[in-house]
Design a protein that fits this description.
GO terms for molecular function: protein serine/threonine kinase activity. Helix content is 31%, strand content 27%. It is built from five helices and 13 strands.
Length: 217
């Protein structure tokens, strides 16, 4: 009975009220400390960094008390300056806390290089879609006398003959030398055909020369 009397006594009620007040004060103190230490109420609008170089990005984010991290380089986009920002996260206009990291994707210095597969000897209908799928552009189609019609005899870029394993930047223009089915093709680098200077010998001339050789003339 004495315990229950104590629960309802003025002394206990005063102590209980004092304890509650202490807890309330401590609670407000903790909340205030958290707000001040984590900048709970401070919100910063993320600036638009699109097409900015890293030097401009640094200035912009330093003024806004934000940081940046470059996470990747995208495929080259000709609509953006080299080494400029293509993508950012968080997006422009989003509100973040002070010292937040902004993740950036940059535009590289140019198109990446692509290695050519073996294409000589295939048909034009096979080669053209392959080159386009790899990101190249088709230039001139040079028809030359060759026994196989539509066969790709050479690939060229800026006048230079290409071979399997050569690397060119994406969007490079590649010219094709294609057979027309009317003769035999003599490659330019053939050491035994100096008199032809890399020409394409019609079938009738080639057969005449073979007949002369057979006759021992």
């Amino acid at each position: 009975m004495g315990f229950f009397k104590f629960l309802f006594s003025k002394t206990f009620l005063k102590q209980l009220l004092f304890a509650v007040l202490v807890l309330v004060v401590l609670g407000f103190g903790v909340v205030f400390w958290l707000d001040s230490s984590t900048n709970h109420d401070q919100r910063i609008a993320v600036p638009d960094l699109s097409k900015m170089t890293l030097s401009l990005v640094e200035q912009e984010l330093e003024n806004a008390d934000l940081r940046y991290v470059v996470i990747d380089s995208s495929n080259f986009n000709p609509d953006y300056p080299r080494y400029s920002v293509i993508e950012q996260n968080p997006a422009p206009g989003k509100f973040v806390k002070e010292d937040r990291k902004i993740y950036l994707v940059l535009n590289p210095s140019g198109y990446r290089e692509i290695t050519l597969p073996q294409l000589v000897g295939r048909t034009q209908r096979q080669v053209e879609p392959t080159l386009l799928a790899l990101g190249f552009k088709i230039g001139k189609i040079d028809l030359r006398d060759h026994i196989s019609e539509d066969e790709v005899l050479e690939l060229r870029h800026d006048g230079k003959t290409l071979k399997e394993g050569d690397a060119l930047r994406k969007t490079s223009v590649i010219d094709l030398v294609v057979g027309n089915g009317k003769g035999r093709y003599i490659p330019e680098d053939s050491g035994s055909m100096d008199n032809y200077d890399g020409d394409y010998v019609p079938e009738d001339e080639f057969m005449d020369e073979e007949a002369t050789d057979d006759a021992g003339i």
